[in-house]
Amino acid sequence: MQKSLKILLILAAVAVVAVAVVLIVLGRTGAEESPGSFDIGVFVPGVAAGSPLYEQLVSGAEKVASEREMVTVKVIEGGFNQGEWEEKITSIAATGEYEVILSSNPSIPFVALPVAEAFPDQKFIILDAIIESHPQMYTVLYNQVEQAAMLGFLAGLITKSDMPGATPELKLGLIAGQEYDAMLKMILPGFERGAREIDPGISVDFRVLGNWYDANKAADLANSMLDAGVDVILTICGGANQGAITAVKERGRYIVYMDSEDYDLAPGTIVGCSELRQERLVRETLEAAIEGDLDWGSNRIVNSTDDYVAFVDNHELYIKSVPEDIRDTMDSFLKDIRSGRRSYEVPKYW
Ligand code: RBF
Questions:
Q1: Cβ pair 245, 266 in contact under 8 A
Q2: CA atoms within 13 A on the CB side of 214
Q3: What is the set of domains in the chain, with CATH numbers?
Q4: What confidence score (pLDDT) does residue 337 get?
Q5: What is the pLDDT of residues 7-36, one digit of tens each?
Q6: Residue among 105, 128, 211, 234 whose CB has most ligand 1 atoms within 8 A, to mutate
Q7: Is the alpha carbon torsion for 136, 142, 145, 151 positive or negative?
Q8: Closest Cα to atom 9, ligand 1: which residue?
Q9: For ligand 1, is residue 46 a contact (CB within 6 Å)?
Q10: What is the per-residue pLDDT for 28?
Q11: Is the shortest distance between the CB of 145 and ligand 1 below 6 Å?
Q12: How many other CB atoms are found less than 10 A from the CB of residue 133?
């Protein structure tokens, strides 16, 4: 009886050791695989749908993951309550899973500062943003003076034209989701500068929505501008853009659009798009990070001469909607910008 109990105990001990060995081996295998993998946490500061730069942020990262076996992407939408963003980025960093947190928006380097301090191994790639020098961050700013100037120049030509929606007043409009440095130091002044190259008497009615989603309020703002004689509106308010576009379309006036080639959203109403090649920038930057070639702590400004900022003039709806004489004037203006003969400096506002 005692002997069989002993045998039973020995067998149980052997079983425990065997299970432990199996678990250790499995664990090792897992640990051996992870050093080769590159995991990217994409933090969308808002929601991706309807915000062109965020859509490109996600698609660029997903393309990189689809091309490289060891790369994974997890997209986390931060939502519209900006007060929660730091906490959400903290919980992404706290997992310790992501080689890089990728995001896009001028406020994110500063929202992420305390997170970087709490997690000194966490790296951040932040596009559409700039921070002086932070060893855990890499930022890229688009020259949006230039981007907005291209649209201002076109809008100036249209407001002076005899196109059916052009009013006698020399008034343009800009609707912004909120006020922020890139808007006040680059986009608004760039839009005004481009327009005033056509006529110094052109004014820009600047309105702030207060959020990035309220399409009804964006329509109200657009309508009040249209009532005052505005004929071309630049709308930069994310998901709320649709409200402004619909209002402008109903009144037969015009929209110029930022960040993506979106003439199809409202053919004949959207008469100019200046694109940011964010998807390309996401891909190039992530590839450099994966290869270990990214210069952490540095920043970069990209523009038209390197084709990260581009007016889309080869789209059939641009050619169809905008009269030939205006397109001809745009042509030579764009040639000057692309070649660097005409340039718009980014003022150092950070
Ligand atoms: N742009 C969007 O299209 N959608 C957004 O939800 C959005 N949220 C923003 C939040 C903050 C705090 C800031 C500073 C900018 C935001 N932008 C947003 C603007 C975006 O960064 C960029 O300036 C515009 O898309 C024009 O290129």
A1: yes
A2: 14
A3: 38-142+280-302 (3.40.50.2300), 144-275+313-339 (3.40.50.2300)
A4: 96
A5: 655 656 666 555 555 444 444 433 334 568
A6: 105
A7: negative
A8: 105
A9: yes
A10: 40
A11: no
A12: 10
